[in-house]
Give the backbone structure.
Amino acid sequence: MIRTKKANPEHTINSMRVLLRAGREGEKLFITEFRELMDISSATFYITVREALIAYGFAEIETNPRERVLYIKLT
């Protein structure tokens, strides 16, 4: 069983919608863009939403060390 901090189900559902829309358009979202679209704080994203999305295999985080940015996309 996967154990993560309990994410608000509404956040998880909305995040899937945001990521699905971006995926259909062939886009990866910057983490900051994703958080703005979701209207959630940095703490909420990093502590609950990100962990749930990654743990359940719904999303992955990509890094670009050259630009020092993080992207999130559907898996």
